[in-house]
Automatic annotation (TrEMBL):
<feature type="binding site">
    <location>
        <position position="187"/>
    </location>
    <ligand>
        <name>[4Fe-4S] cluster</name>
    </ligand>
</feature>
<keyword id="KW-0004">4Fe-4S</keyword>
<dbReference type="InterPro" id="IPR003265">
    <property type="entry name" value="HhH-GPD_domain"/>
</dbReference>
<keyword id="KW-0456">Lyase</keyword>
<dbReference type="InterPro" id="IPR023170">
    <property type="entry name" value="HhH_base_excis_C"/>
</dbReference>
<dbReference type="InterPro" id="IPR004036">
    <property type="entry name" value="Endonuclease-III-like_CS2"/>
</dbReference>
<dbReference type="InterPro" id="IPR011257">
    <property type="entry name" value="DNA_glycosylase"/>
</dbReference>
<dbReference type="InterPro" id="IPR000445">
    <property type="entry name" value="HhH_motif"/>
</dbReference>
<keyword id="KW-0326">Glycosidase</keyword>
<comment type="function">
    <text>DNA repair enzyme that has both DNA N-glycosylase activity and AP-lyase activity. The DNA N-glycosylase activity releases various damaged pyrimidines from DNA by cleaving the N-glycosidic bond, leaving an AP (apurinic/apyrimidinic) site. The AP-lyase activity cleaves the phosphodiester bond 3' to the AP site by a beta-elimination, leaving a 3'-terminal unsaturated sugar and a product with a terminal 5'-phosphate.</text>
</comment>
<keyword id="KW-0540">Nuclease</keyword>
<keyword id="KW-0227">DNA damage</keyword>
<dbReference type="Pfam" id="PF00730">
    <property type="entry name" value="HhH-GPD"/>
</dbReference>
<feature type="binding site">
    <location>
        <position position="194"/>
    </location>
    <ligand>
        <name>[4Fe-4S] cluster</name>
    </ligand>
</feature>
<protein>
    <recommendedName>
        <fullName>Endonuclease III</fullName>
        <ecNumber>4.2.99.18</ecNumber>
    </recommendedName>
</protein>
<dbReference type="InterPro" id="IPR005759">
    <property type="entry name" value="Nth"/>
</dbReference>
<keyword id="KW-0479">Metal-binding</keyword>
Length: 214
DNA sequence: ATCCCGAGGG
DNA sequence: CCCTCTGGAT
């Protein structure tokens, strides 16, 4: 895509959704970190369903530790991948208590040192909680980047670096959410809504079916 | 059968 | 590089 097309794309996304935000529900940075950690290969809807009751029982690292492994697993079982997520979350809580005074650290290095927290989760926390212009590349942004040619990288890291270069600076802080929402509701994996996509005319991707025709 | 705001381990 | 982890929705 040409620079002017990219500019126009983000202008459209910004106009349609001036204040984009995550669809994960959270009331603190710790809850945000927890929700994002739990969201791997799961839908936001299923994560929210579980965390609404989980956060009543445990909304701090210490309370999460008090809940215990089996108690936590029971709360997040419906999300999927629950054995490793429960184990990682408790290990993370131990580190938060022991090394960070019960707070969520603000640097990429400290975040990615937490079990269950990789580059993508760290990017989300840095962006959503601390306002940094990071680009968390999840399945939606990866797919959208490749389909449209906006960021045709072969790995999430490559796509992230391409987006950080190509997204106009003025749109960088919110670009993560605009792209994720576009990927989730328009450039979706199955039957994308190309007829309501702002960059369809600049996009080479031709789906076999769209939800309009089928 | 495929997909969902991935990360860790081999 | 590959594989595994997992329930729920479509």
């Amino acid at each position: 895509m040409k620079r002017a097309d990219i500019e126009a794309f983000f202008a459209t996304l910004a106009a349609a959704n001036p204040h984009p935000q995550t669809e994960l529900e959270y009331a603190s940075v710790f809850e945000l970190l927890t929700a994002v950690l739990l969201s791997a290969q799961a839908t936001d809807v299923s994560v929210n369903k579980a965390t609404r009751s989980l956060f009543v029982l445990a909304n701090t690292p210490q309370k999460m530790l008090d809940l215990g492994l089996e108690g936590l697993e029971a709360q997040i079982k419906t999300i999927g991948l629950y054995h490793s997520k429960a184990r990682h979350l408790l290990q993370t809580c131990q580190i938060l208590v022991a090394q960070h005074g019960g707070q969520v650290p603000r640097t990429r290095e400290a975040l990615q040192a937490l079990p269950g927290v990789g580059r993508k989760t760290a990017n989300v926390v840095l962006n959503v909680a601390f306002g940094e212009p990071t680009m968390a590349v999840d399945t939606h942004i990866f797919r959208l980047g490749n389909r449209t040619g906006l960021a045709p990288g072969k790995t999430p890291l490559e796509v992230e670096q391409q987006l950080l270069k190509r997204v106009p600076a003025a749109y960088l802080v919110h670009a993560h959410h605009w792209l994720i929402l576009h990927g989730r509701y328009i450039c979706q994996a199955r039957a994308p809504h190309c007829w309501q996509c702002a960059v369809a005319s600049h996009c080479d991707f031709k789906p076999k079916t769209t939800s309009k025709s089928s």
